[in-house]
Amino acid sequence: MKKLSVKKGAQCMACLECVRACSTAFYKEFHQDKACLQIISRNGAAKPMVCVQCGKCAEACDQGAITQNAKGVYVVNKKLCVGCGKCKEACPFGLMVKEDDSEFASKCIACGICVKNCPMEILEIVEK
Length: 128
Description:
The chain is α+β, with helices and mostly antiparallel strands. The chain has four helices and six strands; from the N terminus they run βαββαββααβ. The chain has a two-stranded antiparallel ribbon with strand order 1-6.
């Protein structure tokens, strides 16, 4: 299974470059709510919250628009997605992106754009 991961013991400086790269790549604008990962504060430290490819979004989708590819990554089929937002509600980490002005939902596809843009090099794509 391929997924985005945070390196153990790594320190995030909350620069948001990973968030910027993600939202800009997929939505052509820097907007924190349009990124498929988030930087949260936990115990006073910044931590990236990333999709663990759990599949809860796929289970919630009545249209069958979210499926797991050969690498274990859950992806949204834009042609099948009706934009109901059930996947966003089901995501235990709040990482599904479904804005009111968008026709469909989106999620992390482990593309690595955030990894390439993290100046602290704390993100990685791993095969499990």
